[in-house]
Specification:
The complex is a heterodimer.
Chain A: E1 5-7, H1 17-33, E2 36-40, E3 45-49, E4 51-57, H2 60-67, E5 87-88, E6 95-96
Antiparallel strand pairs in A: 2-3, 5-6
Chain B: H1 10-31, H2 35-48, H3 59-65, E1 74-77, E2 124-127, H4 130-139, H5 141-147, H6 149-152, H7 167-175, H8 177-181, E3 186-191
Antiparallel strand pairs in B: 1-2
Classes of the chains: A alpha+beta, B mainly alpha.
Chain lengths: 120, 207
Amino acid sequence: MMLSMMISGPRQPGNDIDVYLSPLIGDLRLLWDEGIEVFDAFEKVNFNLQALLLWTINDFPAYGNLSGYSVKGHHACPICEENMSYHQLKYGRKTCYIGHRKFLKRNHPYRRFEKLHLHP
Amino acid sequence: MIQSQNCIPVVLLFRICQQYCDYLISKKARNGWTDKSFTELLELFHQILPESNTLPTIYYEAKKILCPMGVEYRKIHVCPNDCILYRKEFEGLRKCPRRVVSRYKIKYNDSDDDDMKKGPPAKVLWYLPIIPRLRRFFANVNNAKNLTWHANGRKCDGLLRHAVDSPQWKKIDSLYLEFGRDPRNLRLGLPTDRMNPYDNLSSKHSS
């Protein structure tokens, strides 16, 4: 685990985090496009090291900052986008995200639960 | 004082001093010696060794010997409104081009000649480049071995034990065959969350 940057200031940058990440992204692009020549001390050879950003680890508000997508409201999930199944309560006006059964297999027994038939 | 100046060549003495300085500092760090006691110890060694030795007599100088072994960091000035980083084409600017905000803290309120004064920067980003750090990882035998642990030393029984067993990882390997063939190629993760090292932001709770 490496600390890659420290940002000074009284507030966290929020949506402007992309400005700060640009030097890191430059390095990552170099690592992916060309790779760098690195000495491997275990096998005692030089080799071309490539690296790839596979995951980002964050909570959901920070996900919104990183992906530049609004993570609130009806289409909150940046992956589902318009296929998001949401339900807005009539009186409470809150948005609920239900209908997780659509991720199950077509013949999964949970799909037939009577109690869960509130929403598709 | 030992009068053996003629027995040890000066060059050799210099190298011994350099080498043992590193050793002493690592001992200091491991055993929690205070800076003051370390300085006293260095003074003692300085007296014991032959006269032309180059062993530093204060801790500050001893630490300076280790400076070239550290990994680099870059301080990049930032617009206080998070518009731009002052690097590449913006390197020489003194004001943010989008909103006219000074790059430096202005000491006095006279706005006429604030271009002339150069106070401390208003906001600084400390960037710790990852490439020298990755090189450092591979330069150590143990670390270099551990970096390929997921391919070589692991128990593989088809269960989900490590991130390697995840479908995403396998998909990346199958999409980029050249990349997936060498287990030394790295897959990085980027965690961003409220890092708050000195507890001086708004949240006071421990999280």
